[in-house]
Amino acid sequence: MTDTLTVQSITIADKAAVEELYSAYGRCDSAHAFASLFLWKQDMDLSLYMTPDVYTVRSGWKGENSWFYPCGKPEARLECVETLIRSGCRRLCYLQKEDAEELNRYFPGVFTIHESPEDSEYLYNREEILQMAGGRFVKMRNLYRRLQKEHEITTAPITEDILPAVRDICRQWQQNRGKNVSLLWEEPTNALLDNWNALEARGVILRLDGKDWAVSAGFPLSEGVYDCCLHNARENLPGMTENLRAAFVGACPEHVGQFNYEEDLGTEGLRLTKERLRPCAMIQMFTGERSL
Predict the structure, then answer these.
(1) How far apart, in whole angstroms, are the C-alpha atoms of residue 69 and residue 92?
(2) pLDDT at position 261, please?
(3) Are 49 and 57 in contact, with CB atoms under 8 Å apart?
(4) What's the rounded Cα separation, in Å, for the pair 72 and 252?
(5) Which domain holds residue 228?
(6) Are residues 71 and 153 part of one domain?
């Protein structure tokens, strides 16, 4: 048993091995999914430790000696945590309730566990997005219909020949939101579009009165769940979010019933928007801080 974990850069070549473990032992969160790790590896300073039985990720963005809770076979997962403890791990991130219970059961008193709402992920129901039925969705339904009434809206699936138009929309979205936001999203967006087929991405482009106006895209997390990691518009007109969400969801396979719109990163604007869109559930995340 080693006292340290040797990490490596995250590359497309790691996709099959990570996804095999994620499919067998993951909890269908976006944080541990290969595509998320690959897209955010630069901005969040992520590096991968992996064996045939388990993987974990070191995150410089989360602080010194901070790691994702391991994903893999139960015995290998616990051995990985034990090694992290010996190597001075200060923080374990992206724990779900079952992980937090496991950590307390096998390593009592080593970590102080607290809820991390900024890491918790928002889930939305397919039929609710498409139908917007009932009182909970009356405002969204009205915004959706208003944009439909005022403009001619068409959509098309994103294919390789459309990717230049997608990049143009994303560049304008970033420019409209200033330097700080651009720095946070530019690299993940480029990584998604540069590796579109390899990541098995799917998306739609929305045209407003014939002009390429907005894009939404994501990737599969499981047989019945898709992640939505890209949602950009040249200008976010009233009703644009509702129309774009419905277009993306409608373009995904019919057996996909839930959509993960990821965490809000502790950003108030993102949190308010995601709450306004009426999630059907949350994936509650926790963090384990090394006890002093």
Answers:
(1) 6
(2) 96
(3) yes
(4) 28
(5) 121-262
(6) no
Asked if residues 191 and 35 have their Cβ atoms less than 8 Å apart, the reply is: no
* 256/168 same-domain check: yes
Q: Rounded to an integer, what is the distance from CA 29 to the centroid of its chain?
A: 8
Count the Cβ atoms, other than its own, within 10 Å of residue 10: 21
Q: Are 161 and 103 part of one and the same domain?
A: no
pLDDT of residue 183: 44
> Are 93 and 64 in contact, with CB atoms under 8 Å apart?
no
The span from the CA of 97 to the CA of 286, in Å, is 7
Residue-wise pLDDT for 149-205, tens only, equals: 999 999 999 999 999 999 999 999 988 876 545 446 789 999 999 999 999 999 999
Of 203, 266, 197, which Cα lies nearest the Cα of 232?
Answer: 203
SS3 state of residue 92: strand
The answer for residues whose C-beta is within 8 angstroms of residue 285's C-beta and 6 or more apart is 29, 31, 93, 94, 95, 96, 115, 116, 117, 119, 120, 121, 263
> Rounded distance, CA 59 to CA 216, Å?
27
169 and 243 in a single domain? The answer is yes
Residue 258 · residue 124 · CB < 8 Å: yes
> Which pLDDT tens digit goes with each residue over 24-69?
999 999 999 999 999 999 999 999 999 999 999 999 999 999 999 9
Count of domains observed in the chain: 2
Report pTM. Answer: 0.94
Query: Are β-strands 225-233 and 211-222 bridged in parallel, bridged antiparallel, or unpaired?
Result: antiparallel
